[in-house]
């Protein structure tokens, strides 16, 4: 079988959605001839532009990438793509991973709002670009949805896909490299670790609120940050310094996989404040390393995190982080590791191949 795999990013860093599609690629190439295409092909060209010009050019280039699988559909037996309402690819099969915050649309009383941390000019340019492309994405999205079989990364996403697009889907939890962590002999410290790209939607600013109320712990944040993200980091640092706890917070930026693994094995707590995550690989990876997760009670997160480790407000977060630091022990670390056994990489690959086989069989029947 010839398969076209097209998505937003093929290469490292293998985190989040990029990591998932790399594992999909690994699974598919075990049995099929796979052509792997990424919309990042435009990046060298886009580097010539800055600011508003770059935003405009990206809006022009993305539709070109979206139409590519439609143009090549007769060349391949199956097209496996990424998909979103904003950038709807044509294809046969898609692994759905809505971005952080998207699942809030299922919450009663949800309203769109321009967040105060965003620059007004950037928000306006983005809104104009979205408005210009809206008729095209709406029409093409409707057209492509007719042909897609969805795989959802959690039950929460399955509900979201049904609500937004009236499409049923199969749930396959994302792969997590649980095999990389051996909690036996791990020396845990009073470290509260947070991992992820520093975006406003991730709510890492809560580290400053929570951390200044727990002086016994060292709070560490790792992950890339653009100009907006760096302002969030400065805000967190400012809160710790104001509380006289300047040494209790450290921002490491992007780190190597070995450094991340070492810190996960040392941390007693993984603090993940992002609301309405589709599913967090980071949380499960932290649990595999024996760290106790304290995470926001929304989206797909409750499908991996025990109920008593979830919070809905800042006071709960403070209380549960403090409690987790006191509860941490080799036995608890072992129990955290045990919970993650169902999220391994090999399990993910088997389930993906099963869905590919069934989707292709149905496609042949229709012909």
Describe the structure concisely:
The protein is of the alpha/beta class and 367 residues long. It is 44% helix and 16% strand.
The CATH topology of the largest domain comes to Rossmann fold
Computed over alpha carbons, the radius of gyration is 21 Å
* Helical content class: 40-55%
The ordered H/E elements are EHEHHEEHEHEEHEHEHEHEEHHH
Mean pLDDT: 86
Strand order of the largest sheet: 2-1-3-4-5-6
Largest sheet: 6 strands, parallel
- What proportion strand? 15-25%
Residue windows where pLDDT falls under 50 for at least 5 positions? 111-118
The structural class is alpha/beta
The CATH architecture designation of the largest domain is 3-Layer(aba) Sandwich
When the domains are counted, the total is 2
Distance between the termini: 16 Å
Our count of helices gives 12
Give the total of beta strands: 12
- Shape descriptor reads globular
CATH level 1 name of the largest domain: Alpha Beta
């Amino acid at each position: 079988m010839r398969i076209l795999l097209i998505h937003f990013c093929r290469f490292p860093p293998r985190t989040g959605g990029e990591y998932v599609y790399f594992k999909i690629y690994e699974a598919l190439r075990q049995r099929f001839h796979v052509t792997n295409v990424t919309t990042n092909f435009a990046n060298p060209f886009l580097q010539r532009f800055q600011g508003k010009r770059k935003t405009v050019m990206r809006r022009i280039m993305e539709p070109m990438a979206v139409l590519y699988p439609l143009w090549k559909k007769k060349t391949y037996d199956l097209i496996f793509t990424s998909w979103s309402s904003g950038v709807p690819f044509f294809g046969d099969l898609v692994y759905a991973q809505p971005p952080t915050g998207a699942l809030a649309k299922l919450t009663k009383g949800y309203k769109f709002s321009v967040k105060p941390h965003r620059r007004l000019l950037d928000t306006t340019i983005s809104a104009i670009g979205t408005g210009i492309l809206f008729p095209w994405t709406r029409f093409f999205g409707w057209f492509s949805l007719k042909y897609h079989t969805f795989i959802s990364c959690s039950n929460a996403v399955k509900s979201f896909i049904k609500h937004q697009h009236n499409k049923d889907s199969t749930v396959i939890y994302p792969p997590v490299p649980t095999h990389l962590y051996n909690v036996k002999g791990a020396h845990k410290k009073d470290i509260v670790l947070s991992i992820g790209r520093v975006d406003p939607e991730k709510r890492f600013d809560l580290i400053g609120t929570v951390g200044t109320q727990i002086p016994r712990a060292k709070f560490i944040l790792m992950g890339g940050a653009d100009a907006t993200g760096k302002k969030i980091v400065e805000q967190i640092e400012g809160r710790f310094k104001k509380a006289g706890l300047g040494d209790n917070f450290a921002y490491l930026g992007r780190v190597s996989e070995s450094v991340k693994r070492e810190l996960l094995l040392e941390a007693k707590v993984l603090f993940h404040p992002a609301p309405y995550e589709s599913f967090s690989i980071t949380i499960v990876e932290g649990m595999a390393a024996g760290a106790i997760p304290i995470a926001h009670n929304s989206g797909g997160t409750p499908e991996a995190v025990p109920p008593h480790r979830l919070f809905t407000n800042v006071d709960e977060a403070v209380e549960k982080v403090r409690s987790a630091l006191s509860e941490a022990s080799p036995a608890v670390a072992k129990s955290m590791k045990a919970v993650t056994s169902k999220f391994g990489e090999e399990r993910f690959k088997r389930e993906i191949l099963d869905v590919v086989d069934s989707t292709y069989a149905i496609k042949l029947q229709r012909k």
